[in-house]
């Protein structure tokens, strides 16, 4: 089997339901999710120490989930009823992981700059590329009203996950977050939750 097919040489690509120009918003959105997946693989490659093995395994699961996101997007223009792969269970799983990793990092008071270890910097790239995928999804939803609610929520939660994990990796590696020095305290956490 040849790797190249030449079917896209005139600027179109095939999806379930027909062909679209490669600059179509749906194709742009699929590409954004592909980029998030690639950056996630890069971040995973930076998880060298045993203390980060759990995060590495979670990132592998997220790579599979990102393929699920692409699968759901690829059938948006299909006329046939298709069972979608992104579910509320995936969102709940992300929320549980976020809550876990937030507990591993010190309380945050100011905005922080992306950075720290190579792994942390890679996770921030994952976070920002996920936000771009989310912006594409939002535009796609506003133009077509066809994006599943679970996919929108999953993507929103995923960027939060990358932020929480990036901070946790810095804490595990004993790298303090770099606070934005010209910013004031914007986050507040009360010891007494009832106040």
Secondary-structure blueprint:
Blueprint: E1 12-15, E2 18-21, H1 25-45, H2 53-74, H3 88-103, E3 112-113, H4 118-144, H5 149-172, E4 178-179
Antiparallel strand pairs: 1-2, 3-4
GO molecular function: ATP binding; corrinoid adenosyltransferase activity
Domain Cobalamin adenosyltransferase-like: 3-168
Protein name: Corrinoid adenosyltransferase
Put the structure in a nutshell.
Residues 3-168 form the Cobalamin adenosyltransferase-like domain. By secondary structure, this protein is mostly helical.
Question: How would you sum up this structure, described in words?
Answer:
The model is unreliable at 189-195 (pLDDT under 50). A hairpin with a 2-residue loop joins strand 1 (12-15) and strand 2 (18-21). With 195 residues, the chain is mainly alpha-helical. The radius of gyration is 19 Å and the shape is globular. The chain has five helices and four strands. The longest helix has 27 residues, at 118-144.
């Amino acid at each position: 089997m040849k790797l190249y097919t030449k079917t896209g040489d005139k600027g179109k690509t095939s999806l379930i339901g027909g062909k679209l120009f490669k600059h179509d918003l749906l194709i742009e959105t699929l590409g954004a999710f592909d980029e998030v997946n690639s950056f996630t693989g890069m971040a995973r490659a930076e998880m060298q120490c045993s203390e980060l093995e759990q995060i590495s395994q979670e990132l592998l699961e997220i790579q599979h989930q990102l393929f699920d996101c692409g699968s759901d997007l690829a059938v948006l223009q299909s006329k046939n009823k298709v069972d979608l792969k992104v579910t509320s269970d995936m969102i709940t799983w992300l929320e549980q992981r976020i809550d876990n990793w937030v507990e591993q990092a010190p309380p945050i008071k100011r905005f922080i700059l992306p950075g720290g270890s190579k792994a942390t910097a890679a996770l921030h790239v994952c976070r920002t590329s996920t936000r771009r995928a989310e912006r594409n999804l939002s535009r796609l939803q506003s133009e077509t009203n066809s994006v599943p609610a679970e996919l929108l929520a999953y993507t929103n939660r995923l960027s939060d996950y990358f932020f929480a994990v990036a901070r946790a990796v810095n804490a595990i590696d004993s790298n303090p977050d770099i606070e934005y020095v010209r910013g004031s305290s914007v986050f507040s956490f009360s010891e007494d939750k009832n106040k």
